[in-house]
Amino acid sequence: MRETTMVRGRVQLRPVRPAGWWFDALLLAGFAALTLALAEGLLDDLDLAVSEWAFAHDPAPLYWAARVFNVLGQGGWLLMPVSGALALAVGWRRHSVRPLLLVAGAFVLTTLTIGPLKLWTDRAAPSATVKDPFLSPEEAVEIFNRLPAGAYSMSYPSGHVANAIVWYGVIAVLLTALTAGRLPSVTYRLVRFAPPAILLVTTTYLNFHWLTDGLAALLLGVVLDRVLHRVPWDDLPLPGAPRAWDRPFISTP
Length: 253
Description:
Layout: E1 6-7, E2 10-11, H1 22-39, H2 44-56, H3 60-70, H4 75-94, H5 98-121, H6 128-131, H7 137-140, H8 159-178, H9 185-205, H10 211-230
Antiparallel strand pairs: 1-2
């Protein structure tokens, strides 16, 4: 981890790679372009073909293996509790409340972006056609649809994939802090990159999401992850916090 520096009393953003906001803008442009293409129906055939293939190739062993691995993306009862527990462990070891700020920041950021986008884009999941025999795949695949809100409006982008990018990024930071920077690089990369890749495959294979739901979530999730990693958590002012618990946790071994 590279340290964040204070210049003339101002908090400096932590570096990300590739540096600069141009990459974030590129990712957001890709997300916007993908959403526009879906609004025009340009990728519906691709999504329908992938979904049809997944429905036709779901033997029990593969199906249940995918269900097990898909648990990696459960935010409410897995990712957030694990992140919270790690933050408490790091905070106790470092005598710092700052790890909890990272977890709180991830929660606020994902809540204010992923959920509202799902509601705005109004897209049904491919599995909705199984639950509702009167819903055709051609209706379900439409974005900005005119179907009743709720079950038919929560598919785009994939929350499992986007959450995995953000929360496993948080978990990797906390594990690095907990091990005082001695976390093997292979383990760090495995924690960071394996779960999102697994969830992109499993959510599509299980027909929980269209393929483009997962691709959009990759673009959005990386942006959110970069925002979190830019925040100088070690240097944020904490008015009123006890000095004994206002210590850095990322840049201090």
